[in-house]
Amino acid sequence: MGEFLKGTREELDKVVWPSRQQLISESLAVLLMVTLSATTVYFVDNLFNWASGQVFR
Question: How many CA atoms, within 13 angstroms, populate the side-chain half-sphere of residue 9?
């Protein structure tokens, strides 16, 4: 158990943690991409719904 914790600590010391500014900017980029993706899926879904309504009316 002690060797495992020692190894875990050594690996965590190798991690390069992001700065606060980098964390905020990358989080905003992720939120923007998720929002754009969800909006695109929404509009494509509505397009297909409208098109199927025209074909199968």
Answer: 6
Report CA Rg, the chain: 23
3 state SS of 33: helix
User: Are 56 and 48 in contact, with CB atoms under 8 Å apart?
Assistant: no
Is the Cα torsion angle 36, 37, 40, 41 positive or negative in sign?
A: negative
Position 19 scores a pLDDT of 97
Question: 18: closest CA among 3, 30, 2?
Answer: 30
User: pTM above 0.90?
Assistant: no
